[in-house]
Amino acid sequence: MITFAAWRDGRYVPLAELLVCLGDRGLALTWQLWIEEATAHPRLADLFAASGGPAIGTLELLALTAPDLQVIDGRFLGCLDGVPTIELTAFDSTSWDVECTDERLLSRLRRRYPDAHSPSALPP
């Protein structure tokens, strides 16, 4: 598991950015989502409608999560062939927590967010 700041240089890191960061490996995932709170946005009703529902593909999730959508509290479980592979958790709009069984996906996030660290370790 890694965690990293959701805010950097006055800019929020949106879910859409994380999904794009996963690259082609992320396209094969299907997602279950649970949204507790997010900022106002034109697609927010659609996002809440998908919350707790059946799994959706990465491209469909990207369409629901515009680059300016801020998830305050939410959890996104990505599965590959029905097997949980990655979980992205927005915590109080301050950090993203990532649990992942695919080291290649985790490595992509570590490269993009070099401040990522294990919660038990202090950030660099």
What does this structure look like?
By secondary structure, the protein is α+β, with helices and mostly antiparallel strands. The chain is built from five helices and eight strands; from the N terminus they run E-E-E-H-H-E-H-E-H-E-E-E-H. Strands 1-8-7-6-4-5 form a six-stranded antiparallel β-sheet. Strand 6 and strand 7 form a beta hairpin.
Summarize it:
The chain is an alpha+beta fold and 124 residues long.
| Percentage of residues in DSSP E strands | 35-45%
Distance between the termini: 16 Å
The number of distinct helices, counting runs of at least 4 residues, comes to 5
As a whole number of angstroms, the C-alpha radius of gyration is 13 Å
Secondary structure blueprint with pairings:
Layout: E1 2-5, E2 7-8, E3 11-12, H1 15-21, H2 23-27, E4 30-38, H3 44-50, E5 56-57, H4 58-64, E6 71-80, E7 83-91, E8 95-100, H5 103-112
Antiparallel strand pairs: 1-8, 2-3, 4-5, 4-6, 6-7, 7-8
Features:
124 residues; globular; 6-stranded antiparallel sheet; alpha+beta; 29% helix; two-stranded antiparallel sheet; 5 helices; 35% strand
